[in-house]
Amino acid sequence: MTDPGARNGFARAAERLGLRVYAMVQDLGSIFTLFLQFLSWVVRPPSEIRNIVKQMEEVGVRSMPVVLVTATFTGMVLALQSYSGFQRFGATSLVGSVVGLSITRELGPVFAGLMVSGRVGAAMAAELGTMKVTEQIDALVTLATNPVKYLVVPRVVAATLVLPVLVIFADLVGILGGYFVSVYLMGANPYVYVAKTYQYLEFKDIYTGLIKASVFGMLIALISCHHGFIAEGGAEGVGRATTRAVVASSMMVLISDYFMTSFMF
Amino acid sequence: MIEIRGLSKRFGKKVVLDGLDLTVPKGKNTVVIGGSGTGKSVLIKCVVGLLRPDAGQILIAGEDITKMDERELVRVRRKFGMLFQGSALFDSLDVGDNVAFALRRLKAYPERHILEAVEEKLSMVGLRDIQRLMPAELSGGMKKRVGLARAIASEPDILLYDEPTTGLDPIMADVINDLIVSLRESLGVTSIAITHDMASAYKIADYIAMLYKGRIIEVGTPAEIRGTANPVVRQFVEGRAQGPITAENEEFVRFVRKADEAERKEESR
User: Fold this and answer.
1) Do B250 and B264 fall within a single domain?
2) Contact B77 A142 (CB under 8 A)
3) Shared domain check, B115 and B126
4) Cβ-Cβ contacts under 8 Å, A142 against chain B
C-alpha cells in the first residue's frame, strides 16, 4: 500500500474490489479443501450412520412440505403462462410437454435446491457457527473427534442422498399441478395432455435432473458447513455466517446448474 | 511431563507468544496467570494442538507435538482432558451423552461400562441423577462441573483448565477450586490452568507462572509469587491499577488515539 494520503477514490475502489475478489477466491479454496477432507473422512471408520440418518430426516423429511408447495405452484404457473402464450400460435396441445420437460429438467431440481439452501443451509451454518463461537468444535477435537468427520460428513452425505428424493416428489407434484390447471381451469383435453406429457419426456430428462439435485445437495452442505466453521465474533458472527451461507449456496445452485446443463445436454 | 521451549505464535502482525519457555512438572498443578489478551488461551490451545505454533517445541512425555500430523495428534490428545471457559457442552446432547462422548467415540467399552463410568465421573464432581437434562437447563456452575466430568471421562493424564472460575459467583468458584485440587489428589493428573483470578490461582496452584508480553517472566510457588520482587508480577498479583503494566497500556492508548485522529483527518480530506 502507498501512503494513505496519496490514495484517490479510484485506487480505493480498486483496492476494495481486489479485497473482495481475494476473499472470494480464498473462500472457494477453503471449500475445496473441505471437500477433500470430506472425501478422506467419509471412507474411514467408524461409520457415522446414526448421524447421517438424523441429518437425512432434517434435510429431507422436514424440507418436504416447503419443496412440495413450491413445486406445485411452479407447475401451476407454468401451465398458466405457457397456455396463454401458446394460444397465440395455436399450440396449446404442447403445454403438457413444456410443463413436463421444464419441471423435470430444470425447475424441479433448481427450486428444490433453492428452498433447501434457504432452509437447510441456514440451519447448518447457524448450528456449526454457534458450535464454533462457543468452543464446542474445539471441545470435539480435545475429545479425540475430528469435526469434519463428526459434523461435515453426515451433513454432506445426507444432503447428497436426500435431495434427489425430494426432487422426485417435486417433479411429480409439479406435473400434477400443471395438469390440474390445464385440465380444470383451461379446459384442455386430459387424454391429450397426458399423452403429450409422455410423448416428449425421456428417462434422461428425469435422471439428469436428479444428478443435478445431488450435486446441489453436496454444494449446499459443503458451503454452509464451511461458513459455519469460519464464524467468529459471537452472535453477530453467527448471523453473518448464516446470511453468507444462504447467499453463497443459492448462487452456487444457479451457477452450477448452468454448467451442468451445458455438459449434460 | 510437559516441556515448552521457545514457543512463538503470531496472528497477522500481532505477536502473541514470543519464545515462551515453561516446564510443567508431573502430577502438579501449574497455573499460568496474566492479563486479558496476553495469550494465555493461545498457549493452552497450542499445548493441546488446537493451534499450530509458528516456532518452538512442545514436548509431551518426550514427544514433540508441533511436528505431528493430525493422526498422531489424535493419539496424543487422548492423554488430554480440557475444561473450556464457557464449558462448551454440546447443546444437542444431554448431560449423560456429553460425559460419555469420548468413551462412545473410542468404541472401546461396552455400553454398561460407559453408563457406570458416567455416573462415577458425575459423582466425582458432586452431581447425580442429571444424565437426562439438557445443557440449556443447567446453571453456569453446573455446566462447569459437567464440563469437568466430561474432561475426566476418558481418564486423561493431563488436564487443561481455561479460566475455570470465570463467570461464577465466589462460592461456586471455590467449589470448582476444591474440585480441581481434589482431582489432582485423587487422579494424580498433571494440569495447567490459566486464570486471572488470583484467589483461585493461590488455592489450586503448586506453581504459578506469569505470562507477560509473550514470555513467562516468573515461575514460583504461590508463596514465592506472593513475595516477588518483580514489579510487573507484583502489580498483577496485587491487582493495582498503577504500575508498569498499565503505564505501558496508557502509552499504547495514546498511540492508538493519535493514529485514529490521523485517519479521521485523512477521511475528511
Assistant:
1) yes
2) yes
3) yes
4) 48, 50, 77, 80-82, 151, 160
Host domain of residue B6:
1-79+156-227
What band does A256 get if pLDDT is binned at 50, 70 and 90? very high
What interface predicted TM-score (ipTM) does this complex get? 0.82
Q: Which residues of B touch A46 (CB under 8 A)?
A: 105, 107
Strands, E assignment, chain B: 2-11, 14-24, 29-33, 55-60, 63-64, 80-83, 158-162, 190-195, 207-212, 215-220
Spatial neighbors of A65 by CB under 8 A, at least 6 apart, are none
d(CA A184, CA A177): 11
Check whether residue B26 and residue B73 sit in a common domain. yes
Partners of residue B167 in chain A, C-beta under 8 Å = none
Q: Which of B117, B160, B164 is nearest to B140 (CA)?
A: B164
Whether B222 and B161 share a structural domain? yes
Q: Using alpha carbons, list the distances in angstroms from residue B45 to A38, B14, B84, B177.
A: 24, 17, 11, 21
Alpha-carbon gap, residue A200 to A46, rounded angstroms:
46
Residue B85 lies in a domain: no
Give the pLDDT confidence of B155-204 residue by residue, as tens digits. 888 899 998 888 888 888 888 888 888 888 888 888 999 988 888 888 88
Q: Are residues B244 and B211 in the same domain?
A: no
Number of structural domains chain B divides into: 3
* B102·A145 Cβ contact <8 A: yes
Q: What angle do CA A209, A214, A216 make, to 5 degrees?
A: 95
Residue pair B4/B47 in contact (Cβ under 8 Å)? The answer is yes
Q: Note the pTM of the prediction, 2 decimals.
A: 0.83
User: CA B9 to CA B15: how far, in whole Å?
Assistant: 6
User: Which residue among A5, A138, A144 places its CB closest to the CB of B266?
Assistant: A5
- Pairing of the two strands B207-212 and B215-220: antiparallel
Q: What is the CATH number of the domain that holds B75?
A: 3.40.50.300
**Which of A148, A142, A164 lies closest to A209, judged by CA?**
A164
Residues B73 and B167 in one domain: yes
* Per-domain boundaries in chain A: 47-264
